[in-house]
Design brief:
- The complex is a heterodimer of chains A (about 350) and B (about 210).
- By secondary structure, chain A is mainly alpha-helical.
- In chain A, about 70% of the residues lie in helices and about 5% in strands.
- Chain A has 16 helices and 6 strands.
- In chain A, strand 4 and strand 5 form a beta hairpin.
- The longest helix of chain A is centred in the C-terminal third of the chain and has 27 residues, at about 240-265.
- The two termini of chain A are about 25 Å apart.
- Chain B has a single domain, classed as Envelope glycoprotein gp160, DUF2291, alpha/beta domain (OB fold (Dihydrolipoamide Acetyltransferase, E2P), Beta Barrel), CATH 2.40.50.
- Chain B has helices at about 5-20, 25-35, 40-55, 60-70, 70-80, 135-140, 150-175; strands at about 20-25, 60, 80, 90-100, 105-110, 120-125, 180-190, 200-210.
- In chain B, strands 4-5-6-8-7 form a 5-stranded mixed β-barrel.
- The mean pLDDT of chain B is about 85.
- The interface between A and B is medium-sized, with 25 and 19 residues.
């Protein structure tokens, strides 16, 4: 990594997702206000405490495992979203990409490909179908990255276009109908258990470990923080900004595909309208986890906390029999609060 | 590592993945082995052998609305059916009333009691947009586990709705007029958590215009 990159984001500070001023002033502030470092954890603890008092069903093993199983999908998507937001980008297409990849995996697994002119049927094994699903997600993500970097399209617009394109492709692929009955082996991905822990939780652990390693222990991880901190300076420092961004969007697309495969497996059905508003949940997890929407600051583990908070909040509101309409209002207010707190912290620092 | 060896390893890995990912068959052999579910036949059978005989168990809509006001839980627990665990539940109902309005999409009916006296609520009989799973699920006579996949199950619903559109609605819709006395059997959908009994839509199973 070029030496003159270091003052932009600060190699050490970037690794833990916290910016540091050159004079160490922010470090002093952090020491003075240590609560800011743990605000997500404190919020999660208070939320769990309140829910365990209000509902006797919340603190049960079956419910907690169910929550973990549900948030595994959001964790996968949110990890990809974090990488993108760290580069000061955004991806609104993850929900649609999730739906398309899940549908492609299910369609290939169930129906294969028929080529009547050759009297040929190409069948796909579980490995083959999931691989094609994951490659599709990666390709769509790469296309997003390419469109954003090649034509300087704002990420918001490029991924908004992909949201519509991917949803349309999903409808075309499925004909608007669910693809169901995918077999017990495939269902194991979303509903199975391994070493007394649900398989989706294992998958999200692997995804998180990969992303933490990527952001904290690799050169590209430092580049991601650097680009988000100051893109122009990063480019002048010799970082191939376009390439890094394409890689980041590709990873996010692949993780959306993993989420899609998990959702499809859990339901034993690829729904053409799956993943609607998932992008909002993942952005919420990223923001609540302390990642700055202007890039360069944040962490994967913070996002995991954010995803857990969103998942617990969803679960708690359902257990408390809150109307789905009010649930949306509450979630929106929580996101707003998280952004306000983040802004206040940034101002203090 | 020399480049040729590296490429050879990559190629071997890709070949191994591909070998374990896809398989090839003759298309006509695959098609010969597939039996397609006959949703139309199943729906016809269901209509004739389960739904029509089961209409005698349909609950009077006047009685149902009274029970919903008096004891909502009892009404839902004893008279509704649904396949999922959500709040949307379906009832098989019957009733009589006087037509108050006829438009392209529905017929509005003022319910009457046994003496022919008008009672609340007013209901709407759908005559154009016959969609959803109300009739299939309200009967409680179809077991989802009997189907290989949910697409087959949904196709049954589509075929039932098609029977309604083609056989139940046309003879009624072509003759019904404002002021007619009508009798109906049908299915309704109610939300357990957000109950609205003021403007119920009935998906008809049988419709009759009674002579004055």
């Amino acid at each position: 990594m070029p030496q003159n990159i270091q003052p932009i984001a600060g190699e050490k500070s970037a690794a833990d997702g916290r910016p540091s001023g050159a004079d160490g002033r922010s470090l002093a502030l952090q020491n003075r206000f240590p609560i800011a470092r743990f605000q997500s954890l404190i919020a999660l603890f208070l939320l769990c405490l309140a829910l365990s008092i209000l509902s006797d069903k919340f603190l049960t093993f079956s419910n907690l495992w169910n929550v973990m199983r549900q948030i595994s999908v959001n964790i996968c998507i949110s990890v990809g979203m974090t990488l993108i937001v760290l580069t000061a980008g955004i991806d609104l297409s993850v929900g649609s990409v999730l739906a398309l990849c899940g549908a492609i995996t299910a369609g290939l697994l169930k129906n294969g490909i028929e080529i009547p002119s050759l009297n040929l049927f190409i069948g796909f094994t579980l490995l083959g179908a999931t691989l094609v699903g994951a490659v599709t997600g990666s390709a769509l993500g790469a296309f997003n990255g390419w469109a954003i970097t090649r034509f300087s399209v704002p990420p918001f617009v490029a991924t908004l276009a992909m949201l519509t394109v991917a949803r349309g492709l999903t409808m075309l692929w499925t004909g608007g109908f669910p693809i169901s009955g995918l077999g017990e082996t495939f269902q194991f991905i979303g509903t199975g258990w391994f070493l007394a822990i649900p398989v989706p939780v294992w998958i999200s652990i692997v995804v998180v470990a990969f992303a933490v390693f990527l952001t904290e222990k690799t050169r590209i991880g430092r580049y991601i923080y650097a680009i988000g901190g100051n893109e122009s300076a990063s480019r002048l420092s010799g970082i191939h900004v376009s390439r890094v961004k394409i890689i980041v969007y590709t990873i996010a697309g692949a993780l959306a595909a993993v989420g899609g495969i998990m959702v499809t497996s859990r339901l034993d059905s690829a729904q053409p309208n799956a993943g609607i508003s998932y992008e909002l949940d993942s952005i919420a997890a990223v923001v609540i986890g302390g990642t700055s929407l202007s890039g360069g600051r944040g962490s994967i583990l913070g996002t995991v906390q954010g995803a857990i908070i969103i998942g617990v909040l969803n679960n708690g509101l359902v257990l408390l029999n809150v109307s789905p309409f009010w649930q949306q209002v509450v979630k929106g207010l929580v996101i707003l609060l998280a952004v306000i707190i983040d802004k206040a912290n940034a101002k203090n620092e | 590592m020399p480049k040729p060896i590296r490429y050879l390893i990559y190629a071997a890995a890709i070949a191994l993945l591909a070998y374990n990912s896809v398989y090839f068959k003759k298309l006509d052999e695959v098609k010969a082995g597939n039996t397609v579910f006959d949703a139309a036949g199943y729906a016809k059978d269901f209509w004739e052998k389960k739904l029509t005989p089961g209409l005698s168990k349909a609950m009077n809509l006047n009685a149902l609305t009274s029970l919903l006001k008096a004891d909502k839980e009892k009404a839902f627990n004893e008279h509704s059916h649904a396949l999922g665990i959500g709040n949307i539940r379906y009832f098989l109902v019957k009733g009589r009333g006087v037509v108050t309005d006829v438009d392209e999409n529905e017929v509005s009916v003022q319910l009457t009691d046994a003496n022919g006296k008008a009672v609340t609520p007013q209901v709407r009989i759908a005559t154009e947009y016959i969609f959803g799973n109300a009739v299939r699920d309200a009967s409680g006579a179809i077991d989802i586990n009997a189907f290989a996949n949910s697409m087959d199950f949904n196709n049954v619903s589509a075929e039932i709705n098609k029977i309604i559109r083609e056989k139940v609605v046309p003879p009624f819709k072509s003759k019904v007029q404002k002021g007619d006395r009508v009798a109906f059997h049908g299915a309704i959908e109610l939300n357990r958590a957000h109950l609205q009994t003021g403007n119920i839509e009935i998906i008809p199973v049988s419709l009759q215009i009674e002579k004055p």
